[in-house]
Amino acid sequence: MRGLRLEIDLDKIGDNARELVRRTSQRHISVTAVTKAFLGCPEIARVICSAGVVSLGDSRIENLERMRSARIEAPLLLLRSPMPSQIDRIVRADAMSVNTEIDVLSALASAARSSGRVHDVLIMVELGDLREGVMPDQLHDTVRHVLGLSALRFRGVGANLACRNGIEPSEENMAELSAMVASVETTFGIAVEIVSGGNSANLDWALSSSDPGRINNLRIGESVLLGREPLHRRPIEGLHPDAFTLVGEVIESKRKPTKPWGRTGQNSFGETPRTDDRGVIWQTILAIGRQDTDTADLAAPEGVEILAASSDHLIAETADRMSCGDEIRFEPGYSALLRSMTSPFVTQHCVGSGTLQIGAPRRACTLG
Ligand SMILES: *Cc1c(COP(=O)(O)O)cnc(C)c1O
Question: What angle do CA 135, 141, 30 make, to 5 degrees?
Answer without folding.
Answer: 65
